[in-house]
Design brief:
Distance between the termini: 70 Å
Organism: Streptomyces gibsoniae
Shape: elongated
Radius of gyration: 22 Å
Helix content: 25-40%
Structural class: alpha+beta
Protein name: Transcriptional regulator
Strand content: 15-25%
Strand order of the largest sheet: 4-3-2-1-5
């Protein structure tokens, strides 16, 4: 068999595998012996595993309602229009809770979640990538956003990348690094295909810190002081510096 023919056959097997076909179905569809189909399916599985998670087809991306409150979206006004509940009183104000799902194969998806503090700290928490049955994705999405009264907002992968990578770049300038596990989540999020629209982070352009229960608030404030200087950031301490 010529190399071109072999490559074409393997691609057809990969397509059948992605559709959920097993050895018998592949053998029948391509006129092969079951043993040949099994060998080709193993090769197809190895080829698919070699594809980086960030290059696999996107099944869905979502962000929490109210995520755009206080941000400058003049470079991407359509994104603001898609978030009608945005306001300073919105449940999600100051945070973007993202969920990204990419296809593993026909019946499986890989999912990761990222919580972004869009006002100050950047990537604050990461849900480690996990693979699940495609039929479980909707229930997982509902559970992931169960704290919000409004439904999660479907977005494109470019918007998800702009929120996450833009926040990381912005908060690194302030002196904050993304949370542990970010590298694994970024592998699923994928690299941008080109330049991303610029989001203006911070609340009305100003870093705004609201301490969480696990934060070292004293260190955060000292970092902001070094990066911006007195009067160039805002904060509210729910329980005082630790």
């Amino acid at each position: 068999m010529r190399e071109d023919d072999d490559t074409e056959l393997l691609e057809r097997v990969r397509a059948l595998r992605a559709a959920g076909s097993g050895p018998k179905q592949v053998a029948r569809a391509l006129g092969l012996r079951p043993g040949q189909a099994g060998v080709l399916l193993r090769r197809a599985a190895a080829a698919d595993q070699a594809v980086a998670p960030g290059h696999r087809p996107v099944v869905g991306c979502w962000v929490s309602p109210g995520w755009s409150s206080g941000l400058d979206l003049s470079a991407c006004p359509g994104w603001a229009a898609q978030d009608p509940s945005a306001s300073e009183e919105a449940t999600g104000a100051g945070f973007a809770q993202l969920l990204v799902a990419r296809r593993e194969r026909a019946s499986r998806v890989t999912v990761t979640g990222v919580l972004v503090d869009v006002y100050c700290l950047g990537v604050k928490n990461v849900i480690e990538p996990r693979t699940m049955g495609a039929g479980s994705l909707e229930a997982h999405r509902r559970s992931y956003y169960s704290a919000f009264e409004e439904p999660s907002l479907p977005i494109g992968i470019e918007q998800a990348q702009a929120i996450v990578y833009g926040a990381v770049a912005h908060t690194r300038e302030l002196g904050f690094e993304p949370a542990p596990g970010f590298t694994q989540a970024a592998a699923v999020l994928g690299e941008p295909a080109g330049a991303l629209p610029q989001i203006g982070f911070g609340n009305q352009g100003m870093p705004f810190y609201l301490n969480g229960p696990r934060d070292d608030a004293r260190t955060v404030l000292a970092t902001l002081e070094r990066a911006r200087g007195a009067g160039n950031y805002h904060y509210i301490l729910a329980s005082g510096p630790k």
